[in-house]
Amino acid sequence: MVSIRPIQFAGIMLAGLLLVACSKPAPAPAPDVSAAAEPTLSVPPPAERPDGPFENTSEESLGQGRAIAENICSTCHAIGLEGPSPHPDAIPFRDLSKHYPIEDLAEPLAEGIMVGHPDMPVFAFEPDHIDSLIAYIESIQTPHEL
Predict the structure, then answer these.
(1) Domains of the chain, earliest start first
(2) pTM of this prediction?
(3) Domain named Cytochrome c: which ranges (predicted)?
(4) Which residue, 32, 39, 53, is CA-closest to 132?
(5) Is 130 helix (H, G, I), strand (E, B) or coil?
(6) What is the pLDDT of residues 96-112, one digit of tens each?
(7) Mean pLDDT of 68-91
(8) What is the DSSP track for 40-89?
């Protein structure tokens, strides 16, 4: 019979514990956004929202969307009707519909948008903030040919 010394046993147990601990994925870091946006990672799908997505295009909603864009997005994206984006790889918001259907941004905004340029931060928003931001983005789209 093979005898295991206490130090060997402790080493084997420690190695096993390290293997188990290292095999679990690390928790995702919380997104770093301003207090004005108060984002979360949970949003009901558009079909479950009682008034449907992007229905609120009131001045208040558009103002909230613009404020979110100014506080969170404007360091990289042009958020107005003219001017270049501060980050050369960031699409101006007024031109987003040339690249994506604007309503398709709801899910990535809810889950943590991770597209665009390599150094784009990850953001996630609450449903009313998503609706306001998308309503604002839709309000500034420039005409383009499909």
Answers:
(1) 46-139 (1.10.760.10)
(2) 0.59
(3) 60-141
(4) 53
(5) helix
(6) 999 889 989 898 888 87
(7) 94
(8) -S----GGGSTT-TT----HHHHHHHHHHIIIIITTTS--SSSS--SSTT
